[in-house]
Amino acid sequence: MQKAIFFLILLSFTSCNYFDAKKIATEDILEEELRTFNWNEVDAYPVFTSCENSIEKEDRKHCFENTLSSYITNSLANETIIVTQDINDTIVLEIQISESGVLDLKSMKVDSITRVEIPNIEILLSNSLQALPEIHPALKRNKPVKTEFKLPIVIAVN
User: Fold this and answer.
1) Which residues of the chain have pLDDT under 70?
2) Which terminus of the chain has fewer CB atoms gathered within 10 Å of its CB, N or C?
3) Helices marked H in 56-110
4) Neighbours of 55 (CB within 10 A)
């Protein structure tokens, strides 16, 4: 009988810890979430209105890049550019799109020959970006976020 009472008392002491609920601090949850959060990937890429009907994420990205390249190329094609030697260069534009959908040209990498032959190339490229249609920003967890792109533009003048 004493063994049974001792066993019940021992069982009651150890079972009290079984029902204790552990509290998890919100800071711990936030820290864990931030560790698993991929900051380099967005849920939806920036998009022009003409590309909104694309469902797939990669399709929207390609549509956005193609539309942007098309606007820049068409703008440059309308310019009269006179050169003394043939140019075949790839200009890399570093573009940032803000949370509100505003496009900003951060920098551009232009070959020295292209700069000599077309001294106003930076102005021409900047002006081509002014006529873009409305851009909807990228989304991360349904919140608009800032994104950056590198967009290659091929310049071929004969």
Assistant:
1) 10-24, 33-34, 37-39
2) N
3) 57-77
4) 7
What is the per-residue pLDDT for 22? 61
C-alpha torsion angle, residues 58, 105, 41, 155 (rounded to 10): 40
User: Cα-flanking dihedrals φ and ψ of residue 152, to 5°?
Assistant: -80, 135
- How many Cα atoms sit within 13 Å of 73 on the Cβ side? 13
Q: Residue type for 147, please?
A: T
From the list 147, 143, 158, 103, the residue with the least C-alpha distance to 125 is 103
72 and 125 Cβ atoms separated by less than 8 Å: yes
Dihedral over Cα of 36, 37, 38, 44: its sign: positive
CA-based R_g, the chain, Å: 29
Closest by CA position to 131, among listed 109, 106, 103: 103
The pair of structure tokens assigned to 126 is: 């900047």
Can you tell me the distance from the alpha carbon of 104 to that of 85, in angstroms, rounded to the nearest whole number? 31
Element spanning 32, H or E: helix 26-36
Given a contact cutoff of 8 angstroms between Cβ atoms, the answer to whether 64 and 46 are in contact is yes
